[in-house]
Amino acid sequence: MRKPGKRCKETDAHYYWNRSDEHDRYFFKVLAGDFRERLGIPDKFVQHIRGRIAKTVKLESHTGCTFDVEVAKSLDKVVLQTGWKAFACAHDLKMWDFLVFKYDGTPRLKVLIFDLSCCEKVLPCHTRDRGEGEEQIENSRSCDDFPMKSPGNKRKAWKQREGCMNANTSSTSLSDSSGGSMSPEDQKSHSVPSYILPRRTYLTFELKKKLKEKVRAICSKTPIYGCVMKKTSIEGKPQTMDISGEYADVYLPFDDQTLLLQHLGKSWEVRCHIQKSNFPSKRLLKGWKQFARDNNLQVGDLCLFELLENREYTMNVHIIREK
């Protein structure tokens, strides 16, 4: 059999890109470099689509969840920009993940995600289990911190949420989408909440909204610890702040240590000591009073503590004012 000639290939390519229907154009991307901030669309794909991609597209993973993402120009390249970071965080995208995009002529790109195993990636519980019309549950762990939409009725959403919470705390084996068992490492990576609050924390609707927006913007692999300032943290004698054992036992595994708190380019050394009681916790002691005073903390303000990966026991503190 003869190999197709150059002219034949050109004819086939012309037909593929210029046929009257708008369905089933594909491109793929291998994630490398600074892929979390933006993702470039291949020049050849852009050239043949010739401006038919809308300024905002919906990215849809196989779960049915959708994210609104801006299509913009950066350094003469067409890129997915505003909204892409939220998609990347929600789907726990890693270096060398392989993404296949399907364009069907509408302002929507369907995305298949593969990891280094060469198989489709098992998505985090908060991406798989979010249901439309679902109410917020006050809980120290959050599984719904990303701006996504997904199909399903309310009853199904509650059942899914219950399953998601069990995945965070259960030691039993989880199953992936193909029916096989997940390793303990996979279970751990898929049960990490995006933020942790002390039990019985009450947030107003506005404060809850600001919390979710800030957590999405931070996009930390380690859960954010959030704490609403009480009188003991601002006016107490001594002036202290407690970090719940649920967070401290996992992410601050010591009895006595000096933490470096950072905010707006400044830093404070604060002693952190274990509090042994019926509900063990860690307490910020010496240095906390100065931090609270220098940053004008008020009762009701929400402080978010972001533990940095590359610096031991260093935390960026993000402050959401109550007023």
Question: So how many helices?
Answer: 10
Helix/strand class = alpha+beta
Taken in chain order, the helices and strands follow as HEEHEEEHEEHHHEHEHEHEEEHEE
Strand order of the largest sheet: 8-9-14-15-11-12-13-10
Q: Tell me what the CATH architecture of the largest domain is.
A: Beta Barrel
On the 0-100 scale, what is the average pLDDT? 75
Strand content: 25-35%
Number of domains: 3
Main β-sheet: number of strands, strand sense, barrel status? Answer: 8 strands, mixed
CATH topology tier name of the largest domain: At1g16640 B3 domain
Uncertain segments of ≥5 residues (pLDDT<50)? Answer: 128-191
CATH superfamily of the largest domain: DNA-binding pseudobarrel domain
Question: Distance between the terminal alpha carbons, to the nearest Å?
Answer: 76 Å
- Helical residues, percent: 25-40%
- In total, the number of strands is 15
Briefly, what CATH class of the largest domain? Mainly Beta
Organism: Panicum hallii var. hallii
GO molecular function: DNA binding
Keywords: DNA-binding, Nucleus, Transcription, Transcription regulation
Pfam family, one: B3
What features would you describe in this structure?
The chain has 323 residues and is of the alpha+beta class. The chain folds into 3 domains: 16-114, At1g16640 B3 domain, CATH 2.40.330; 125-189, no CATH class; 198-320, DNA-binding pseudobarrel domain (At1g16640 B3 domain). It is built from 10 helices and 15 strands. The protein has helices spanning 6-18, 43-49, 84-90, 125-128, 154-169, 184-189, 205-218, 231-234, 245-251, 288-294, and strands at 25-30, 39-40, 56-61, 66-74, 77-80, 98-103, 108-114, 195-196, 224-228, 241-244, 256-263, 266-275, 281-284, 302-307, 314-320. β12 and β13 form a beta hairpin. The longest helix is centred in the middle third of the chain and has 16 residues, at 154-169. The termini are far apart. The model is unreliable at 128-191 (pLDDT under 50).
